[in-house]
Amino acid sequence: MKQNTNAVKRLVSLDVLRGLTVMFMIFVNNGAGEEIFSTLQHSKWNGMTPCDLVFPFFLFIMGISTYLSLRKGGFRWTPQQARKTIKRTLLLFLIGLLINWFDMAMDGRPLDFAHLRIMGVMQRIAICYGATVAAVLTIHHLTHSFRGLWVLVALLLTGYSVLLLAGGGYDYNSLTNILSRVDHALLGDAHLYHKSPVDPEGLLSSLSAMTNTMIGFLVASWALRKERPELGHPHLVTLSRLLVCGAIMAFAGWLLQFGLPLNKRVWSPSYVLLTCGIAASLQGLLVGWLDIYRAQSQTTNSGSAGQPWLVKLTLWFGMNPLFLYVASEVVGILFGAIGIKDGAYSLLHAVILNGYWASVAYAALFVALHALMGWALWKKRVFIKL
């Protein structure tokens, strides 16, 4: 794959944010032992921990990437684009199913398809990607703008809010919670996640989750569009617009939580707006640091400044994000099934007496293993697109 040297078209900051997100995703998913810091676990129900930021961040970033990808084709529905969208959506969903099957197989039940979980992280990514592309291209074809997508996002979040309030969406009870009842009716109890009252990647909550990707697309469509030269440096325009969008959405999410509490399990509308706001703000800050300040420094110093080691590390993850995430899931399941996880944690715990920090050390080593994979792929300029 040839590197794009056009700074306006390719944002280093986007690859870095994506890499940071995947790194943290892998880190929080792979704690060991029974003592794990609460900040490194998903919130049990209402509320939000730093761990709860990673998945919505990824969906938001996917929305930005979708904008950049579809812009190359002029946002037109073509047979080629339709085939590409359908193929990628099905591929991502199938990979998610295979991960669930591998987990079941390593548990000694390779043919127990009656209990195969249908939904999951990759399945939700597939749904959000496919729905966003279909909505964007259809609306643009009909209206030649993206204003209709704002309307769709508003309708989805409003309708979902009513559904949560009227259907007991915040009930910590699978028998009365409408999200659980729909999943049980359509997917069946045997095919669901059973460690919380609702499947965290359930069907109805996917309607809300897909707005993270749509909002990412809409923010990119405004922040990254080409403007008149008199408005100034394009990255400065991008920076200011990302920060404005981020501040507005974060405040709206914070305000909305008083009526619709933050809740990752049900993917509440307040959770959507707050996480999108934080993601947009962080993206803006990274644009300021990497795409403006450091780019100018490297130009002034004829490139001698180079990239900080942390930036290089995140780029290893950011250039092959889904592949490394899928690899982490497979390796994590394998390590757990054959005893490597418990053995490694026991050795670490013998040296690090505090169980919480021993768990952190194991997760950090697990991330380091995948950093080596990412480095090897990056060194060979191999970018695996799932």
Structure description:
This is DUF1624 domain-containing protein. Residues 10-129 form the Heparan-alpha-glucosaminide N-acetyltransferase catalytic domain. It comes from Hallella mizrahii. Pfam families: HGSNAT_cat. The chain crosses the membrane at residues 12-33, 53-70, 90-106, 118-137, 149-170, 203-224, 236-259, 271-292, 313-340, 360-378. By secondary structure, the chain is mostly helical. It folds into two domains: 1-41 and 307-386, no CATH class; 55-301, no CATH class. The chain is 66% helix and 0% strand. The chain is built from 13 helices and no strands. The chain has helices spanning 12-28, 54-71, 79-106, 121-143, 147-166, 178-186, 203-223, 234-256, 269-300, 309-318, 321-338, 340-351, 355-379. The protein is globular and about 60 Å long. 41% of the residues are buried. Residues 1-9 and 300-305 have low confidence and may be disordered.
The average pLDDT value, as a whole number, equals: 90
Largest sheet, described in full? none
Shape: globular
Radius of gyration: 21 Å
Transmembrane segments: 12-33, 53-70, 90-106, 118-137, 149-170, 203-224, 236-259, 271-292, 313-340, 360-378
InterPro entries: HGSNAT_cat (IPR012429)
Domain Heparan-alpha-glucosaminide N-acetyltransferase catalytic: 10-129
Protein name: DUF1624 domain-containing protein
List the helices and strands and how they pair.
Blueprint: H1 12-28, H2 54-71, H3 79-106, H4 121-143, H5 147-166, H6 178-186, H7 203-223, H8 234-256, H9 269-300, H10 309-318, H11 321-338, H12 340-351, H13 355-379
Helix pairs in contact: 1-2, 1-9, 1-10, 1-11, 1-13, 2-4, 2-7, 2-9, 3-4, 3-11, 4-7, 5-7, 7-8, 7-9, 8-9, 10-13, 12-13
Transmembrane segments: 12-33, 53-70, 90-106, 118-137, 149-170, 203-224, 236-259, 271-292, 313-340, 360-378
Protein name: DUF1624 domain-containing protein
Keywords: Membrane, Transmembrane, Transmembrane helix
